[in-house]
Amino acid sequence: MSDKLIRAERETIIIYNELDDAYIIDSSVQKHIRRFDKLGYECTDTQLYDDGTVCSKSYRVPVRAISFRNPEKRKVTEEQRQAARERFAKMRAEK
Fold first, then answer.
1. pLDDT tens digits, 16-46
2. For a 10 Å CB count at each end of the chain, is N or C smaller?
3. How many structural domains compose the chain?
């Protein structure tokens, strides 16, 4: 590949293969590539730019390595916040 991808063109795609019971991850985001390499995921393909730098990588990842979580944060009432403030103030005073 000759031209480097611009930021808007970089992406990470996760595909689930039910037959193999594994995820295939294809990423051109360097932050994600470094993370997947560090986690030791099996790299199945590497695309390089003409200058030899990495353009994208594909990984085969076991199902247990990927989890989808609820992004909703815990809702705290004003009374709960006040009680927490008092507990922390008491802990700091006891030091």
1. 989 989 999 999 999 999 999 999 999 999 9
2. C
3. 1
Q: What is the dihedral of CA 43, 46, 52, 53, to 10 degrees?
A: -70
* Domain with 14 in it: 1-68
Q: What is the pLDDT of residues 38-67, one digit of tens each?
A: 999 999 999 999 999 999 999 999 999 999
**CA pseudo-torsion sign 65, 68, 69, 71:** positive
- Report the distance separating Cα 29 and Cα 66, nearest Å: 18
Q: Is 59 among the domain residues?
A: yes
Q: Look at residues 69, 42, 67 and name the one whose alpha carbon lies nearest to residue 57.
A: 42
Residue 51 domain flag: yes
- Tell me, yes or no, whether 87 lies in a domain: no
Alpha helix (H) residue ranges in 1-95: 30-39, 78-94
